# Entry
Amino acid sequence: MPPSRASKASPTPPPAAGSAREKLIAAAIATVRYKGFSATSVDEICQGAGVTKGAFFHHFASKEALAIAAAGAWTDIAEQRIFTLPDWNRIPDPLERLLGHIDFRLSMLDGPAEDYTCFVGTMVQESYNSSDPIRAACDASIRAYALRLAEDIQQAIDIYGIASGVSAVSLAYHIQAVLQGAFILAKANGHPVIARDSVMHLKRYVVMLFTQK
Amino acid sequence: MPPSRASKASPTPPPAAGSAREKLIAAAIATVRYKGFSATSVDEICQGAGVTKGAFFHHFASKEALAIAAAGAWTDIAEQRIFTLPDWNRIPDPLERLLGHIDFRLSMLDGPAEDYTCFVGTMVQESYNSSDPIRAACDASIRAYALRLAEDIQQAIDIYGIASGVSAVSLAYHIQAVLQGAFILAKANGHPVIARDSVMHLKRYVVMLFTQK
DNA sequence: TGACACATACCAACTGGTCGGTATGCTTTA
DNA sequence: TAAAGCATACCGACCAGTTGGTATGTGTCA
# Structure
C-alpha cells in the first residue's frame, strides 16, 4: 500500500473508473465476499477485474499482498459508506446519531448476503492462522471502524451518562460483534430476518444502557 | 454408521478410539476450525485421521458429503459439551441456568481460537453461496442449538417475565449471533479479550431484559 | 460344519485439471 | 528512449476424485 500514490497529484487523470489495480481490489472484495478467500482464485479475480494475470502480478507481489491492500481499501470504503455519506451522520445529538447508526446498519440487512457482509470479517476467518499479515490488516480495519464509532458513543456518554462499567470502545466492539455474528446467521439462514432481529436486540440494549442505569 | 457394530460384542477389538469414518470427521472439524474449509484439502484431512484417500472416498462420496456429515456430528458434540456435561445444566432456576450458560460460554473463550470457535459458523461463511447442502446443514446445526437454548429461556420467561416484544427463540438466536461475532473479533485480534468483553455485554443485556421491564 | 457368494473396509497409485506464481515480450506514455 | 503498464505463454505443485486391488469379515445353504 504505497502512501505516495495517495498523496501525489497524479498526472494521469485518476484512471477513469479505476486503474487495473483498483479494479483488481474491487473484484477481490466482491468475489471474496461471495465465496470466501481461499475459494477465490487469482484467475477469477483477474476475470472479474477484466485484466490478465500479468497485470495482477505487476501490481501485487502475491495473492496475500492483494488481500492486505484490499483490507486497507475496505477500511476507506466502509468509512465512506457508513460514516461519511449517510445523512444520519449530521444528526446533532450524539445518542440519536448512535441509534441512527444502528438503524442504518439494520437497513443494510437486505438482499443477498454478499452485498452487506463484511469483507475483512469474512477473510480473517480463513487467514487468522495462515497469514499473520492478513490477520493484522483485517484487525486494523475492524479496529478503525470501532474507534470511529467509539467517538460518537463517548460523546453520548459525556452528555447522558451510561450504565456503570461500560466504556465507549468496549460498546463499539460489541456492536461490531453483533453485526459480524448477524452476518453469519444470515448466511446460514439464507435470509437476513434473523440477523435483523439480532440487531434490534442490540438497539434495545444500547437504549437500555443510556436510559436505565 | 452401522449401528450393529456398537450393539454386538465385536470379535475384532472395537476399532480402537474410533472408526476411520469417525476419525475423518474429527480431523475435518479440527482442520476446518484451524484454517477454513476451502483451504483444507482432502489429503490433509486423511493425514490428520491417519487413513488413506481410498478410505475417505469409501466413506464419503465427496468433500461436500464429509462437510455435511461433520456438521451433523458437530450438532451432537455441541449438545454434549454445552447442554449435557457441564454442571450448570443442573441449576434448578431457569434464569440462573441461562446466566450459567452465558458464563460457561464466556469461560470457553480462552487459549487458541480454533479450540473454542464454531465449526459450522466458520464453514457456512465459505459455503453459503457455493453449496446449498452444506449451508443447510450448518443452518440446521445452528437452529438446533438455538432451539435447545430457547427452552431454558422460555422457562425463565414463564417464571420471571421479560421486556415486552422479546421472544425466547429470538433471544436465543441473538446469543448465537454475539458468540459468532465474538469469535471473529477474537480471530482478528489474536486474543479473546475483546470477545469476552462482548459476551459480558450480552450477559448484562439478558439480566436487564429480565429485571427491567 | 464347511465352503461359496458377497459385502465392507481399506489401500497405493494414478488422472485430469486447477492452483499461485514466473518469464518474457509488446505497447503506451512521459 | 526508458520505464511503467500490461498481455501471452508457461511451470511445477497441488487439488478432488478414480482406479484396481487386498484383507477381512458375514450370511447362506448343502
Remarks:
- The first helix of chain A runs from residue 3 to 7.
- Chain A touches chain B through 50 residues (CB under 8 Å).
